Amino acid sequence: MENKCFTVRTKCVAVRTNQWNLQAVRHVPGFKVDSMRSDNREIPKHMEIHHPMSRIRQMKVAACFDLILQRSIFSIDQDEYVQSMSIRILFPFFFILFFFGCADKEPALPAPTPLPKLVVANASFPEGNTQEVFMFPVQVSGSSDDLVHIGYETRDGTAQAERDYAPVWGELSFGPGTVDTIHLIPIKFYGNILSEEDEYFELHFFNGKNILPTDTSVTITILNDDEPFPEYPGYQTPPEYDGMELIWQDEFDIAFYESKWQVAESGNWFNNELQYYGRANLEVGKGLLTITAKEENYAGHDYTSARIYTQDKFEFRFGRVDIRARMPEGKGIWPALWMLGANRNEIGWPECGEVDIMEMRGSNPSRVCGTLHYQNGDGNHQNSGAQCFSYLSKKFSEEFHVFSIIWDENGISWYVNDLKFNEEKFEDLNLGNAPNPFQREFYLLMNVAVGGNYDGDPDESTVFPQKMEVDYVRVFQEKG
Ligand SMILES: [Ca+2]
Ligand SMILES: [Ca+2]
After folding, report:
1. Cβ neighbour number for residue 14 with a 10 Å cutoff
2. Strand 123-126 relative to strand 216-223: parallel, antiparallel, unpaired?
3. In angstroms, what is the span from residue 289 Cα to ligand 2's centroid?
4. Is 359 designated active site?
């Protein structure tokens, strides 16, 4: 019984299958089709067959039963036939000519098509560095008597939708008939240059019709294709502090984010500075922001460099700022990590206030200074007097240091590598009757100026280009 085929041979097609997999029909010469003779009492108008040898457990067909009765068209003998099938007349209005045969007695005929299988497999793709689209193939294993369709959707694993990949969902259809269709589902990865663990998500298939299995999943793995960033030597601060929350950061790990920073594009600056500031002198790569000061003629200037700032993008009041950076050096090079009052455009400098977290004369790369600038009630510029941190022999251009301030309503303290070297209490400022600007919001700036009043202009000892490299900027605030 196990190997017996189960074949329908009929000139009429309309074998009702009630969704089972049997629509294959063969024309058999020599049999007269008389399907519409409803007055022929020998013809059952409908019958139901239970056939244990086939996946087709039950089907309803309309049949010209007289052919079955008049001819021994079942290859299995009558006992088996009776045992394995029950024939009942059910409905009077279907007429289809058909009969059964089997390979061992009748001429071999194609078996009714088993349900095709869904052909999918786990897949791995390299992450890429930008956006990569891979075509995931979905195929069915063979011909299908009925329309095949199945739904699909992505489901997060360690990879997350929108962060690591673009979620997809939909429905696929195949056939009916000979199925050689491959559907390709586009899978988009959001790649980057970060060295990460391999990550995966699932492509889930569900609600399959006329296909097996009806539900299944495959795993799609995003393969890391990046080397870890180098370890940049020097002091590191922790990524978090007890009682504080990180409210803003840039690790400069993937790209330069215009969403976080504005980029100066101008040659008009104060302090008799010589540079033209532009986007071309700025890059992010291997975990660092690099601002390069160059000796080159551009827009009437002899030097170019870059300044970035967070005005209108990130402004804050009070907290801890950590900036890990390696300084340039050389006479006339003036790197600065600093802050200006967010209302500068409305009230101007110095009334808006200025906090120099770190500035350095390139002629003395072993010393950095922290200073406040503001305006007193008479409209005069005031400053706190620069307080500086000096090494005897080490230079800030040799390795990375973390320059920090801790700012609250009472004052600001300055740190190099967590060593406090300056503190200003606001009650000690010469504000007169002017409001204290340091109770308001500020924004961050980072730049490398060339020439000007602070360290004079470059001379023949100054080597170009000079680079300030920044590993991270993190701003924390007290919780609650
Ligand atoms: Ca990558
Ligand atoms: Ca970094």
Report:
1. 15
2. parallel
3. 8
4. yes
d(CA 146, CA 184): 21
- Whole-number Å distance between alpha carbons of 48 and 26: 20
Q: Which of 360, 424, 356, 423 is nearest to 390 (CA)?
A: 360
253 CA to centre of ligand 2 in angstroms: 5
Ligand nearest to the CA of 189: 1
Query: Which ligand number lies closest to the CA of residue 400?
Result: 2
Residue pair 328/448 in contact (Cβ under 8 Å)? The answer is yes
**3-state SS, residue 116:** coil
Domains of the chain: 1-112 (no CATH), 118-223 (2.60.40.2030), 244-478 (2.60.120.200)
**Region 332-336: what's the mean pLDDT?**
98
Beta bridge partners of 144: 177
For residue 190, the CA-to-ligand 1 centroid distance in Å is 9
Of the candidate ranges 139-153, 246-260, 376-390, the one whose mean pLDDT is the lowest:
139-153
Choice among 251, 273, 359, 469 that is catalytic: 359
**Could you tell me the distance, in angstroms and rounded to a whole number, from the CA of residue 193 to the centre of ligand 2?**
12
**Residue 91 reports pLDDT greater than 80:** no
Q: Give the pLDDT score at 181.
A: 75
Distance 324 CA to ligand 2 centre (A): 8
- For the stretch 101-122, pLDDT in tens is 333 455 566 667 788 889 999 9
Res. 10 pLDDT band, cuts 50 70 90: very low
Instruction: Identify whether 354 is a catalytic site residue.
Output: yes
CA distance readout (Å), 358 to 252, 288, 322, 403, 445 = 19, 18, 11, 7, 11
What's the Rg (C-alpha) of the chain?
A: 40
